[in-house]
Amino acid sequence: MTMNSYVFTPAQLPTLAVEGSDQRFPISRVFCLGRNYHWGDSQGQVRQAPIFFMKPASSVIPAQGDIAFPPLTEEFCHEIEFVIAIGEGGYDIPEARALEHVWGYAAGLDLTRRDLQMAAKSAGMPWDGAKAFDGSAPMTPIVPVGRCGHPDSGEVWLSVNGVERQRSNLHSQIWSVSEVISRLSQSITLCAGDLIMTGTPPGVDALHPGDLITAGIDGVGQLQVRVASR
Length: 230
Ligand code: MN
Description:
Blueprint: E1 15-17, E2 24-26, E3 30-33, E4 52-55, E5 60-62, E6 66-67, E7 76-77, E8 80-86, E9 102-109, E10 112-113, H1 114-123, H2 128-131, E11 137-139, E12 143-144, H3 145-148, E13 155-160, E14 163-169, H4 177-185, E15 195-197, E16 212-217, E17 221-227
Parallel strand pairs: 3-15, 5-11, 6-17
Antiparallel strand pairs: 1-2, 3-4, 7-10, 8-9, 8-15, 9-12, 13-14, 13-16, 16-17
């Protein structure tokens, strides 16, 4: 009897490239934050507790080349997001120590089947079908903190076929990186390799086959992908 007697070969660990290195960043889990910028309907409101949902680690793909048009949707939408890459885990991390747990940052797309999300919302059902499909989280290489610091400003933008659809700035985020890490770690024990997608500015809209998406977070990364045929 061998030590490792799996009944089949386990899936390969999902990883992302690291900017300026041949090493890979091993992905544990992907947490996503709901509304984290004012969309024009929430200005001046008191902050409500941040809402987190998840995507499987296997949904992370490099943000390059073609991205698949997912099944079961007529409203496939883009969301450009600032991504936190955790390098050191912890439970109940105080805000003042939160940045010590960050390994790096990336730019990512929280691709969404909006029609499924709206149906789930109105039925009071989970969002998983809307958010957790194959290839739903294209991301740039992760930039180590040693190269980009802890960005708290920098333009967040996305264009489709050369026409700008989303633009804001990291300083407009409702919840800071430290607050996001501290709050999330009050709910679960964060692990090295966890990624946190921190929400998208207004301007989310539908994508169609052949669309060319260019997007980025200034000071962190840029991406370009094309939506494949259905
Ligand atoms: Mn999002």
